[in-house]
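Structure tokens please, single chain.
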Amino acid sequence: MEINIPKGQKGEKQVVVNETNTAKAYGSGLIDVFATPAMVALMENTAHTSIQDFLPCGMVSVGIDINVKHIKATPLGMKVICNSVLEKVEGKRLFYTIEAFDEVGKIGEATHTRYIVDAHKFVERLK
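Here you go.
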């Protein structure tokens, strides 16, 4: 099965920092600012949804590596925008660069690798 996902495919997602996605809520810190785990989840979500329409029925991508820098804190009520770019495709491996910004400037960056799998077979192997 051949899967054609164009290099350069972009994704964008946004969230507003609220009580559910803070460092305090995640347990990754004690302050009500956008949590690093929440930023990582937003980054992965932005990448995987950017290519889902190119995958055959039953196929999904799973994250296998992420190298992330959380550069700046973002307070409650501020919007966070995440952008992903598919830089390279090697067979079933997808390589991304991702950036996150709040209303003031850049707050994070990452490189991220995803792998295309058959969702049913993937879950069956876990049993």
